Amino acid sequence: IQDGKIVALRENKQHPDATLPHYDAGGKLMLPTTRDMHIHLDKTFYGGPWRSLNRPAGTTIQDMIKLEQKMLPELQPYTQERAEKLIDLLQSKGTTIARSHCNIEPVSGLKNLQNLQAVLARRQTGFECEIVAFPQHGLLLSKSESLMREAMQAGAHYVGGLDPTSVDGAMEKSLDTMFQIALDYDKGVDIHLHETTPAGVAAINYMVETVEKTPQLKGKLTISHAFALATLNEQQVDKLAHRMVAQQISIASTVPIGTLHMPLKQLHDKGVKVMTGTDSVIDHWSPYGLGDMLEKANLYAQLYIRPNEQNLSRSLFLATGDVLPLNEKGEHVWPKAQDDASFVLVDASCSAEAVARISPRTATFHKGQLVWGSVAG
């Protein structure tokens, strides 16, 4: 390893210069580091005292927005300290690459963005993270367009959005505004789309059409959650997947369990890039997040595959952003010389076992640096 890259792979004990510093991984399995591609590092109870919230049945997203408007000023003094603790948690699970949504709305202004950027600057040698400017209280509803534009100028990587019909009440105007900001600043788009009504399907179709008509947006749209896809039949999903692949549109999913059965395997099999993430670790939205992408691959395997050796090992794709040690023919494709030296050591014999058992991680490396755990020198 040199300058954060793998420069050569040699047989064990056959290094030409035995005087170089080395580690003894003790027979652990080396896997690619994992990627948490949908998390909220800027607002969390994690790192503070246990809290659970009484959310009465029938609580709407509008109710949650009102609640959050009251809570954000309470959380803000702890933003940096708790974001650091979340990063520690992610690294302990083998994650060194992430995409974090960050609240941009009138209550927070740009404070959460500034706090998150300060933390990421401190942690950049061991953790790389894109930031989505997220209009959590509705892009139109909270009149956040000018703040979103300021966030782009301040260095956010993606324009976020939220339920254009159920929150903003104007699907086309909300989505057009979101895309226009992205075009004006040459940024990507990553929208939270929770809507399961026909309006959710309409929003997905409208976004796909917009990208089809706007070449500058090709490869730049992620739809997070996209629960409306669970309301489509197999043929409808196939048709949409074909269009999404052509425009390089990706999906970020927490792999939800419950009444919704997302067509994640069908999308992936058709060539759509499917990513996963924690979303909330513990906050006013949910107390269940473990920050563990191997757990997400395990959940995917439980929901979508027959648990044989090959299927289990291939399910690792979800955790690693499609980086796998072997290709479909069983040929070694990772790690190779010139790859980033980013990997996790796992107490497992193979990928299939790691996915099935959510095996313990013992050390995490990012670009050659040991960032969590320990390994014998």
From TrEMBL:
Coiled coil: none
Any one GO molecular function term: hydrolase activity, acting on carbon-nitrogen (but not peptide) bonds, in cyclic amidines
CDD domains: Bact_CD
Residue intervals of the Amidohydrolase domain: 80-352
Pfam families assigned: Amidohydro_3
Listed PANTHER family: BLL3847 PROTEIN, CYTOSINE DEAMINASE
Protein name: Deaminase
